[in-house]
């Protein structure tokens, strides 16, 4: 009889622990989804304040479409304005998110092909380093880029 009661008590304890662990997982997921949503909203706000990184978009477009001689003259002002816009974004993760959005917009325009597309992506990834802001490089992944 004592064995049955001990086994019953152990079974109840295991069941209680399983329920507790299960409920804490859902709380963790909910909290992390909320944190992710707040981060996304904060990034969108910072990107908007930095004028949607329009100068960076212009710089990337010119850089991928022009010859090297044209590039030096035309893009000097754009890179400076782009760097200023990147500096306006306080959160380093948001800088990369903003550049990812710029690259994605250019991809959706559909005007760049092959080498130009790859060059734009590589330039965008290295822009923070050129502008001397952190992170030095952004890992940008877009859907169906290649």
TrEMBL record:
Keywords, A to Z, come to: Signal
Matching entries from InterPro entries are given as: Bifun_inhib/LTP/seed_sf, Bifunc_inhib/LTP/seed_store, Napin/2SS/CON
Instruction: Cite the Bifunctional inhibitor/plant lipid transfer protein/seed storage helical domain residue spans from the record.
Output: 43-138
Q: Does the keyword Acyltransferase apply?
A: no
SMART domains in alphabetical order: AAI
For this chain, the family text in UniProt reads: Belongs to the 2S seed storage albumins family.
Name of the protein in question: Bifunctional inhibitor/plant lipid transfer protein/seed storage helical domain-containing protein
The organism's taxonomy opens as: Eukaryota, Viridiplantae, Streptophyta, Embryophyta, Tracheophyta
